Amino acid sequence: MLDSDNAAPTARLDALLAAERRALDLLEAIERAGLIAPGKSERQIEDEIGALASAEFAVERDWHERLVRAGVNTLATSSDRQPDRIVAEDDMVFVDLGPVFAEWEADVGRSYAVGDDPAKHALCAALPVQFSAIQAHYLGRPGITGAELYAFAVESAERAGWRFAGKIAGHIVGEYNHRDWPGDRQLSRIAPGNPTPMSGPDPYGRERFWILEVHLVSPDGGFGGFYERLIHPATAEP
Predict the structure, then answer these.
(1) Is residue 3 in a domain?
(2) Domain contains 210
(3) Crossing angle of the two packed helices 146-159 and 118-139, in degrees rounded to 10
(4) For residue 119, what are the domain limits?
């Protein structure tokens, strides 16, 4: 039983939205500080992000490890272990963060084109567009399953000229640590192996809240990009 089991649904949503806003503010602070720059290693940037998150946002823990991927490593999914890479002068970089604010998990990801390559900048611009298209599809179909939304994400990427590279397209999020909740973890993912409606309750009978992950790869397979955040009517564009 979680401490927040008796919390009103709106209170849980408000807490998750507040955690996401803090995480997005953290991304903005990372950008202002110029932490993503050529000549640095992925691990160095991860450590610098951790120090900034602690000093300026009081982040004491992350529900998943901080992840920075550059160049060819942007083709790999989060579960793939890659050798540490130095960011090049004209590179693609993405950041995936899972900070915990109080007991609430945030999960945000954003991509950056380091340099002037128009193809990389085009992918950075395409990621939030794809996110919005997938979110709109989800919101318009209350009974959609995790497998169906994953299939749509793949099709939408292909129609736009990209390849969807994620093994999943998202997962639930909530009070720390949702990965310890009971039940089949596959049913808490936006993935081919989840035939259940995403609108169904969590193991404690409450509303589930979902993170949508968009991992796209360029047509030539040379680089990828990543973007993620909550999908919910409260986060949709007006």
Answers:
(1) no
(2) yes
(3) 140
(4) 9-235
Domain count, the chain: 1
pTM comes to: 0.94
31: CB partners within 8 A, 6+ apart:
112
CA distance 167 to 94: 17
2 lies in some domain: no
Q: What is the CATH number of the domain that holds 119?
A: 3.90.230.10
Residue 133 resides in a domain: yes
CA-to-CA distance for 148 and 128, rounded, in angstroms? 20
Tens of pLDDT along the chain (238 residues) come to 454 444 566 899 999 999 999 999 999 999 999 999 999 999 999 999 999 999 999 999 999 999 999 999 999 987 888 899 999 999 999 999 999 999 999 999 999 999 999 999 999 999 999 999 999 999 999 999 999 999 999 999 999 999 999 999 999 999 999 999 999 999 999 999 999 999 999 999 999 999 999 999 999 999 999 999 999 998 876 5
Do 164 and 213 contact (CB within 8 A), yes or no?
no
Q: How far is CA 223 from CA 93, 123, 138, 171, 207, in A?
A: 9, 9, 27, 24, 36
